[in-house]
C-alpha cells in the first residue's frame, strides 16, 4: 500500500522494486491529460496483455522487466504520447528506440524510486497528483540519447526533428529539459526536471541516476543503425572541394599583390631603367662627339660644318637625302638634316621668326621668288625622282574612284538622291507596324536558349511557376526619427541615395506591443482587401497547399498567435519565444511549421529583440494567363494599400516599412526607363546645339584674332566712337594715315568688322548640322523598322541609348566631310582660275585637267573630291564599327543582343545616308553659301561685300583648333624626347589597367536598374540586412524509375539499402560543407517521407480498410474499421526496404500519400509539403519529374549569387555522375545569373574576334598590315584602359558592360582610323628599313595630325564629351554607372590613345605610305599649295634654326 495513499508523512520508500508513481489521478483541467499518482508501493507483475503492449510501445531497446510500476491506462497514455513523436524520429532506429526506452523507464521501470524524486503534488478533479518531479539521468545516458537524435532530419520542414522534439536544443541538458517542461503537445502534462548528475553534484540519499547503454546510430544492428542523413558518423567522405575565392582575389600572390601585378611592375621598372640607361649612354656619346668636334675646329680649318661632320656618324646614310638626321635643331622634334641638304634648302619667307638662310642668298625672297618650293614633309623639287614619287595603292585608287563617282552623282542629282532615299526610308519604316516593346524581365535579360532558361521552362511546366511572393518588412525607426514625419522622410531619402549601405537602415527593436498592434490591424485589413474592378480577395489568389478554399500560406508572427493581439494575452512575449523555440507547437492554419528566421528579422536568436517583422503572402502562380491576371489585379490593390501605409507609418507608429509585390519589379524597371527622360533629351539637345554651331567652323582664325582681324577692328571702332559722335577731333596723324591709302590697317580692320554679319549669316551651317543630326535619327528609325519587321523586339534601353550612341558615333562623318569640303573650297573655290572640267564621272580626267594652281572647280566637283578623299576613311571606320557592334549579338542575353543589332544597323544605315543624302545636302548648302543666302532662311540673299581687300568670305580657313594643333601640339608631340615620354606614360597606364582589371567583379546589382527613389531599393536593403535565410533551391530529378527498387534506392537516404551517395545522401553530405556547396538546410526528401509514411508502426498515417485492403481509409474513419498499411505484409516492412511498395502498387500509394493532409495525426502526410513536388506522366503510370527542396545559405552579394549557382551545378553534375540519374538545380534567381558562368569567356571571345576583324579590315583598307596592326594594338590598349577603369570605378562586368566594351572598341577605331589613313596617304612610300624612314614617318604623322586631327578632336571627342557630360545629372544609377561612367572612360581613353599614342606609334612602326592623290601632278600641286606648309612646319631646314 502506498504511503501517500495512507496520508502518512514519512519519507517515501526507496529501493529496487519500489515505485515512485503509478496510476492516473485525474486531469489538471477539463481538456488536460491524465496526471500520475504518487505511489511508493512495490512494483507488480504485468499481465500478458500488458507485456504485449509494452513490447509494442517500448520496442526492442527496452527489455520488459518482471515487474512494472505502470498500469494499462498509463501504457495507453504513453503510447499516445510516443505516437506524436514517432513520425519525426522513426527514420532513425537508434533515436527512436532510445526515445522509447527513456520514456518507458520513466513510466514503467520497477526501480523508479531510485531515480525519481517527487518535488510537489497538486489537487486534481478527483485526487492528488504529481505537479513536479525530478528525473535523475546519468550524464552518459543523456549524451548518448541526445547524440542519437540531434542529427535526425524532418524533410517536410527542411529542418531537424530536434527542432520539434527538443526545441532546437544544442546540448543534452537542454534537450531533456525541453521534453520535461510542462507544455501541451509534445511537452509533459506536469513538470519533469532533469537535475545535474555530474560528479561532485549534490543528490538526495539513495538516489541512483538512471543509466543504461543508449543505442548508437552507427551500430551495426537493425534496431540501431541509422542512415547517413540522420547519422553523420556513417556518411562517406566526399572529395574535397575548395570554397570559391573572392572574384578579386588571386590564387598566386607575392605579399599583398598578385603575381600578375608584381610581374608587370617588375617588367615596367626594368624597361624604364633600360631606357634611362640607353638614354644616358646616348647623351654621353653625344657629349664626347661634341668635345671632339670642338677640338677639331680649334685645330683645323673649317672644311665642313659641324653638322656635316656629325652627319657622317650614320653608316650608309645618303648625305644628299632630305631624310637624314641631325641633332642641332632646337625647334625640330629630334630630326636633323645633313649639311649638304641644308645648302640646297631654304626657309619660307613667312617663317614665324622671320629667319632666312645664311647660305642661300635667294632665301629672303620667300616661296614666291625662290628657285624652288619646299613641298612639305621635307621634300624639294630637286630631290631624286625615286624619293619624290609617291607610292600608289590600287585598292585606294579604286575606292577613291568609286566614292568620287558616288559623290559626283549625289552632288549633281540631289533631288533624285533625296527621292530614292525617301523611298528606301519609307519602305524600312513600314516595319514599325510590327513594333513591340519587351518589358518582361525574364525575356529581357535571359536568353531563351540558355541552360537556366530551358530548366526554368521545364520546372514551370512540371511543377508550376514559382510562387508570387508579396513581402513586407516592418522596421522601427531610430529614436532620432520618432519626432516627426519630416524626419522620417529625410531618413528615407538618405537611405535611397545610399543604395548599398545597409547601416543606414533602422536598427531599433520592433517587437513592442504598440508596433505589433498597429501592424496586425493592417494585416487583418489586407486579408480582406478587395481588388478593382473584379473584387478578388487574398483567398481567391493565394497558394493554399490543401486545395482551393483551404487556409492560405501567410508567413507572419500572426500565423502563430492570430491577428488580434488582444487574444494573445499579457504573456504574449513568452508565447512568441515559445513558438520561436518550437514552431511545431504553433502550427499555422496551413499546417506547416514556420522557421522564426522567416518572420523575425535581425534577431540572431533573441527573438524578442528582432529588428524587423517579416510578412510574406504567398500568391499562387500559373501558366494560365487568366489566373496570372487575377493575381496581378489583387497585387495592384495590395501595392496601392502598402504605398499608403508607407506614407503614414512613421506618423502612426514610428515604424518604416519596405515592401515588394509580384508586380513591383516589372513596374519599377519600366518606370526607371522614364525617370531620366529630361536628362536624356537635354543630352541630345546639347549635342544637337554643339554640332549645329561648330559644324560651320570654316572661318580662318586670323579673321578673328589676326592683327587686322575682326577683334582688332571692333577695338578700333570702340576707340573711335567719340570721333564718330564728334566729341573728339581726329588726330592729324590719324588723318594723314587715313588719307594715304585705303589699304591702311585701320581701314582693313574696319572692313573686317563690317564683314562679320555676312560671314555669320551666310557661312553658318546650322541648318546643315541639324540635317546631319536628323539623318542619324532617320537611320535609327529605319533600323527599328527593319528589325521590328524581322521580329527583334525593342527594349526601353534601346529607345534611350541607341540614338545617343549613333549620334555620338556617326556625327564625326559629318564633321570630316564638311571640313574636307572647306579645304576643297579653299583650294578650288571662288576666286580661283576656272577650269573646263565637266566630266561627270571620271576622277582621273578631273585631275589631269588641273595643271595650274589655284584652279576653280564647280561645286559638284569640289563635293565629289571631298567624298573621294574622305569616303574610304568613312568606309574604314563604319565597317569596323558595324562589325564590332554586330559581334555584340553573340551575347545571348536578348536585351544586349537586340541592342547590338539595332546599333549595328543604325550605324550602317547612318553611314550610307551620310555618303549619299548628306552629300546632296552639302551641295545645296554650298550653292547657298556661294550665292550669299542666309542660313536657315535661304530665301533671303545678302548683297555681296565690295572686295576692297584680298578676303574671300566663302573660302574655308584655318580654325583655332587646327592652328593650335599645327603650331603647338603636333610639333611638340613628335619631338623625340616627348615621344619617348609618351611611351613611358602609356606603359604606366597599361600596368595600371592590368591592376584595375583584376579588381573587376561580376554581377549587376538589381538596385542599379531601379529609380533612385524606388521603394524596392529600401526593400532590397532590408532583405540584405534582416532576412537570415537564403533563397530556396530545388534539385530536379528527371525520368527516375520510382516503380523499381533500384530507382527508389537511387533517390532515398533514410533506408539502409539506399545508394551510399544517392540523391538525398549527396545533398545531405553537401549540406555539411556550406562554404563550398552554399546549401544550408537538410533536403526535403519526398521519397523518404513517402516510404516512411507506409510504415505500419505509424498507425495514424497510411491506413486501409480491414474488410478491403485495396481501399484507403479517410482521416475521419474510426480505428475499428481500419488497419495500418503493410501490417501483415510478407516480407514485413523493414528499414532495409523489404516489404515496401514497388511497381504499380507504388504509384497507387504515392497518389494516396499526396492526398493525405499534413497534420498532428500524421506529420508525414504529403499534401501540404510535397503536393507540387512530383509530376506524373500523362497516364499516371510513373513519375516524370520530382524535386528535392532545400535552401541556400544567406546570399548577400552578387558574388554570392554567382558562386551559389556554380556550386549548385557542380553538386548536380556530381550526383548525376554517381547515380546515373538526370538532375539539375533550379532557383528563381538562376536565370538572371546564368550569364556569369560564361560572361568572361564571351568577353574574351568577342573582343578577340573584334580585334581580329579590325586587324583584317584596317590592313586591307589601309594597304599596310603594319599600320593595321598598330591601329589594332592601340585600340586594344584603349579597351584595356577602359577595363582598368572599370575595376577602380566599381563597374561590374555583365552583359551591359560587355556591350560597352565592344562599343569602346568601335569608338577607339573611330578615333584611330581617320588618323591612320591620313598617315598612310601623307608619305612617299619608303621601305620600313630605309635609313630615312624614321623622319619620313615623323613627317607623315605630323601631316596626319594637322589634316584630320581637328576633325577628330571637335567632331568625335568634344561631341561625345559634351553629350555624355549631361548624363552626370542623371538620377538613374544604371545610366550613371554603365553609361556615364563607362562611356566617359571609353571616350577619354579613345581620345588619348587616338590623338597621342597612335601618332607616336605610327612614327616608329607605321607602314609605308602612299599618295591620296592619283597622279604626280596633283600630288606636287597639292603639296605646293598646302596652306599649312607656308607658315610653319616642324621638319624645316636646320639652317633656319642656325640663322636665329
From TrEMBL:
Determine the domain of life of the protein's source. Eukaryota
Q: What is this protein called?
A: Uncharacterized protein
Origin species, per record, is Naganishia friedmannii
Amino acid at each position: 500500500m502506498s504511503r501517500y495513499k495512507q496520508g502518512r508523512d514519512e519519507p517515501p520508500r526507496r529501493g529496487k522494486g519500489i515505485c515512485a508513481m503509478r496510476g492516473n489521478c485525474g486531469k489538471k483541467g477539463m481538456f488536460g491529460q491524465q496526471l500520475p499518482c504518487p505511489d511508493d508501493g512495490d512494483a507488480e507483475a504485468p499481465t500478458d496483455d500488458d507485456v504485449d503492449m509494452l513490447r509494442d510501445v517500448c520496442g526492442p531497446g527496452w527489455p520488459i522487466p518482471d515487474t512494472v510500476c505502470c498500469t494499462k491506462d498509463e501504457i495507453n497514455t504513453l503510447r499516445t504520447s510516443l505516437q506524436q513523436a514517432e513520425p519525426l524520429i522513426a527514420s532513425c532506429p537508434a533515436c527512436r528506440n532510445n526515445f522509447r526506452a527513456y520514456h518507458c523507464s520513466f513510466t514503467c521501470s520497477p526501480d523508479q524510486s531510485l531515480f525519481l524524486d517527487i518535488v510537489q503534488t497538486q489537487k486534481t478533479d478527483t485526487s492528488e497528483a504529481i505537479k513536479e518531479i525530478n528525473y535523475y539521468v546519468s550524464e552518459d545516458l543523456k549524451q548518448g540519447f541526445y547524440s542519437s537524435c540531434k542529427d535526425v532530419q524532418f524533410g517536410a520542414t527542411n529542418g531537424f526533428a530536434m527542432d520539434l522534439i527538443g526545441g532546437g536544443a544544442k546540448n543534452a541538458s537542454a534537450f531533456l529539459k525541453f521534453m520535461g517542461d510542462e507544455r501541451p503537445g509534445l511537452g509533459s502534462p506536469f513538470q519533469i526536471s532533469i537535475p545535474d548528475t555530474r560528479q561532485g553534484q549534490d543528490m538526495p540519499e539513495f538516489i541512483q541516476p538512471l543509466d543504461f547503454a543508449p543505442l548508437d546510430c552507427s551500430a551495426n544492428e537493425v534496431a540501431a543503425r541509422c542512415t547517413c542523413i540522420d547519422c553523420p558518423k556513417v556518411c562517406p567522405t566526399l572529395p574535397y572541394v575548395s570554397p570559391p575565392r573572392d572574384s578579386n582575389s588571386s590564387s598566386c600572390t607575392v605579399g599583398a599583390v598578385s603575381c600578375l601585378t608584381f610581374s608587370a611592375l617588375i617588367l615596367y621598372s626594368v624597361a624604364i631603367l633600360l631606357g634611362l640607361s640607353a638614354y644616358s649612354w646616348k647623351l654621353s656619346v653625344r657629349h664626347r662627339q661634341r668635345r671632339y668636334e670642338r677640338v677639331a675646329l680649334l685645330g683645323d680649318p673649317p672644311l665642313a660644318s659641324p653638322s656635316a661632320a656629325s652627319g657622317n656618324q650614320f653608316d650608309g646614310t645618303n648625305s644628299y637625302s632630305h631624310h637624314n638626321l641631325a641633332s642641332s635643331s632646337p625647334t625640330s622634334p629630334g630630326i636633323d638634316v645633313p649639311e649638304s641638304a641644308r645648302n640646297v634648302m631654304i626657309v619660307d619667307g613667312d617663317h614665324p621668326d622671320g629667319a632666312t638662310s645664311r647660305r642661300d642668298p635667294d632665301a629672303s625672297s620667300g616661296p614666291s621668288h625662290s628657285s624652288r618650293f619646299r613641298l612639305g614633309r621635307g621634300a624639294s623639287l630637286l630631290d631624286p625622282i625615286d624619293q619624290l614619287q609617291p607610292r600608289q595603292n590600287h585598292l585606294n585608287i579604286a575606292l577613291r574612284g568609286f566614292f568620287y563617282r558616288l559623290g559626283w552623282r549625289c552632288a549633281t542629282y540631289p533631288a533624285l538622291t533625296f527621292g530614292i532615299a525617301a523611298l528606301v526610308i519609307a519602305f524600312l519604316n513600314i516595319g514599325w507596324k510590327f513594333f513591340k516593346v519587351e518589358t518582361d524581365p525574364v525575356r529581357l535579360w535571359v536568353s531563351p536558349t540558355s541552360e537556366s532558361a530551358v530548366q526554368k521552362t521545364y520546372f514551370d511546366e512540371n511543377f508550376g511557376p514559382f510562387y508570387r511572393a508579396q513581402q513586407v518588412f516592418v522596421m522601427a525607426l531610430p529614436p532620432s526619427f520618432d519626432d516627426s514625419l519630416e524626419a522620417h522622410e529625410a531618413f528615407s531619402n538618405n537611405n535611397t541615395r545610399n543604395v548599398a549601405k545597409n547601416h543606414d537602415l533602422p536598427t531599433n527593436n520592433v517587437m513592442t506591443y504598440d508596433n505589433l498592434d498597429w501592424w496586425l490591424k493592417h494585416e487583418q485589413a489586407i486579408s480582406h482587401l478587395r481588388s478593382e474592378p473584379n473584387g478578388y480577395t487574398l483567398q481567391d489568389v493565394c497558394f493554399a497547399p490543401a486545395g482551393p478554399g483551404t487556409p492560405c500560406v501567410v508567413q507572419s508572427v500572426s500565423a502563430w498567435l492570430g491577428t488580434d493581439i488582444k487574444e494573445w494575452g499579457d504573456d504574449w512575449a513568452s508565447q512568441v519565444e515559445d513558438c520561436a523555440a518550437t514552431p511545431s507547437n504553433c502550427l499555422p492554419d496551413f499546417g506547416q511549421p514556420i522557421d522564426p528566421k522567416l518572420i523575425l528579422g535581425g534577431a540572431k536568436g533573441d527573438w524578442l529583440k528582432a529588428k524587423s517583422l517579416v510578412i510574406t503572402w504567398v500568391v499562387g502562380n500559373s501558366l494560365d494567363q487568366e489566373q496570372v491576371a487575377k493575381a496581378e489585379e489583387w497585387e495592384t490593390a495590395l501595392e496601392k494599400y502598402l504605398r499608403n501605409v508607407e506614407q503614414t507609418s512613421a506618423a502612426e507608429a514610428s515604424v518604416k516599412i519596405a515592401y515588394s509585390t509580384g508586380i513591383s519589379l516589372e513596374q519599377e524597371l519600366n518606370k526607371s526607363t522614364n525617370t531620366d527622360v529630361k536628362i536624356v533629351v537635354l543630352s541630345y539637345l546639347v549635342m544637337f546645339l554643339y554640332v549645329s554651331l561648330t559644324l560651320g567652323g570654316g572661318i580662318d582664325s586670323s579673321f578673328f584674332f589676326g592683327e587686322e582681324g575682326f577683334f582688332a577692328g571692333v577695338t578700333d571702332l570702340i576707340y573711335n566712337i567719340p570721333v564718330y559722335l564728334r566729341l573728339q577731333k581726329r588726330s592729324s596723324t590719324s588723318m594723314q594715315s587715313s588719307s594715304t591709302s585705303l589699304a591702311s590697317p585701320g581701314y582693313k580692320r574696319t572692313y573686317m568688322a563690317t564683314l562679320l554679319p555676312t560671314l555669320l549669316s551666310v557661312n553658318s551651317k546650322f541648318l546643315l548640322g541639324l540635317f546631319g543630326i536628323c539623318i542619324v535619327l532617320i537611320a535609327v528609325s529605319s533600323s527599328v523598322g527593319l528589325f521590328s519587321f524581322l521580329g527583334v523586339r525593342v527594349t526601353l534601353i534601346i529607345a534611350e541609348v541607341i540614338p545617343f550612341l549613333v549620334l555620338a558615333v556617326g556625327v564625326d562623318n559629318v564633321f570630316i566631310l564638311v571640313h574636307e569640303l572647306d579645304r576643297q573650297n579653299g583650294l578650288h573655290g571662288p576666286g580661283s582660275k576656272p577650269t573646263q572640267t565637266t566630266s561627270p564621272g571620271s576622277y582621273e580626267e578631273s585631275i589631269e585637267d588641273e595643271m595650274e594652281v589655284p584652279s576653280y572647280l564647280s561645286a559638284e566637283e569640289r563635293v565629289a573630291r571631298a567624298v573621294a578623299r574622305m569616303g574610304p576613311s568613312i568606309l574604314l571606320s563604319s565597317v569596323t564599327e558595324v562589325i564590332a557592334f554586330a559581334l555584340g549579338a553573340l551575347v545571348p542575353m536578348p536585351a544586349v543582343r537586340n541592342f547590338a543589332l539595332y546599333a549595328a544597323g543604325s550605324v550602317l544605315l547612318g553611314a550610307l545616308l551620310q555618303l549619299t543624302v548628306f552629300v546632296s545636302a552639302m551641295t545645296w548648302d554650298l550653292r547657298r553659301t556661294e550665292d550669299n543666302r542666309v542660313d536657315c532662311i535661304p530665301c533671303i540673299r545678302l548683297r555681296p561685300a565690295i572686295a576692297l581687300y584680298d578676303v574671300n568670305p566663302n573660302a574655308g580657313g584655318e580654325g583655332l583648333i587646327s592652328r593650335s594643333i599645327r603650331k603647338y601640339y603636333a610639333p611638340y608631340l613628335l619631338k623625340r624626347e616627348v615621344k619617348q615620354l609618351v611611351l613611358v606614360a602609356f606603359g604606366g597606364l597599361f600596368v595600371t589597367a592590368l591592376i584595375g582589371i583584376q579588381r573587376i567583379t561580376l554581377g549587376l546589382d538589381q538596385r542599379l536598374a531601379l529609380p533612385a527613389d524606388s521603394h524596392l531599393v529600401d526593400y532590397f536593403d532590408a532583405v540584405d540586412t534582416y532576412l537570415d535565410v537564403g533563397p530556396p533551391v530545388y534539385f530536379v530529378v528527371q525520368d527516375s524509375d520510382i516503380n523499381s527498387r533500384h530507382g527508389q534506392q537511387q533517390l532515398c537516404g533514410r533506408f539502409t539499402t539506399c545508394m551510399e551517395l544517392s540523391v538525398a545522401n549527396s545533398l545531405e553530405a553537401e549540406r555539411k560543407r556550406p562554404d563550398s556547396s552554399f546549401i544550408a538546410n537538410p533536403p526535403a526528401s519526398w521519397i523518404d517521407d513517402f516510404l516512411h509514411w507506409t510504415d505500419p508502426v505509424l498507425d495514424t498515417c497510411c491506413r486501409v480498410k480491414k474488410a478491403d485492403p485495396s481501399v484507403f481509409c479517410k482521416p475521419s474513419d474510426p480505428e475499428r474499421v481500419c488497419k495500418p498499411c503493410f501490417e501483415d505484409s510478407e516480407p514485413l516492412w523493414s528499414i532495409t526496404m523489404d516489404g515496401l511498395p514497388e511497381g504499380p502498387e507504388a504509384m497507387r500509394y504515392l497518389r494516396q500519400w499526396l492526398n493525405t493532409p499534413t497534420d498532428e495525426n500524421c506529420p508525414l502526410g504529403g499534401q501540404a509539403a510535397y503536393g507540387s513536388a512530383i509530376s506524373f506522366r500523362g497516364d499516371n503510370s510513373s513519375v516524370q519529374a520530382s524535386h528535392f527542396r532545400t535552401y541556400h545559405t544567406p546570399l548577400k552579394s552578387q558574388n554570392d549569387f554567382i558562386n551559389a549557382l556554380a556550386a549548385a551545378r557542380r553538386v548536380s553534375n556530381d550526383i548525376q555522375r554517381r547515380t546515373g540519374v538526370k538532375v539539375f538545380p533550379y532557383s528563381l534567381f538562376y536565370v538572371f545569373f546564368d550569364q556569369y558562368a560564361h560572361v568572361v569567356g564571351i568577353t574574351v571571345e568577342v573582343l578577340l574576334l573584334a580585334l581580329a576583324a579590325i586587324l583584317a579590315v584596317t590592313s586591307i583598307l589601309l594597304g599596310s598590315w603594319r599600320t593595321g596592326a598598330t591601329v589594332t594594338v592601340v585600340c586594344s590598349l584603349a579597351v584595356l584602359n577602359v577595363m582598368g577603369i572599370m575595376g577602380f570605378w566599381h563597374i561590374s562586368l555583365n552583359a551591359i558592360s560587355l556591350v560597352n566594351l565592344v562599343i569602346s572598341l568601335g569608338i577607339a577605331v573611330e578615333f584611330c582610323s581617320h588618323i591612320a589613313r591620313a598617315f598612310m596617304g601623307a608619305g612617299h612610300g619608303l621601305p620600313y628599313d630605309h635609313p630615312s624612314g624614321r623622319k619620313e614617318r615623323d613627317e607623315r604623322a605630323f601631316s596626319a595630325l594637322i589634316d584630320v586631327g581637328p576633325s577628330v578632336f571637335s567632331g568625335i571627342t568634344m561631341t561625345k564629351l559634351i553629350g555624355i557630360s549631361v548624363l552626370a545629372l542623371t538620377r538613374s544609377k544604371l545610366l550613371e554607372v554603365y553609361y556615364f561612367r563607362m562611356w566617359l572612360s571609353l571616350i577619354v581613353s579613345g581620345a588619348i590613345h587616338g590623338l597621342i599614342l597612335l601618332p607616336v606609334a605610327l612614327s616608329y612602326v607605321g607602314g609605308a605610305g602612299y599618295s591620296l592623290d592619283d597622279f604626280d601632278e596633283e600630288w606636287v600641286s597639292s603639296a605646293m599649295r598646302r596652306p599649312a606648309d607656308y607658315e610653319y612646319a616642324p621638319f624645316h631646314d636646320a639652317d633656319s634654326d642656325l640663322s636665329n
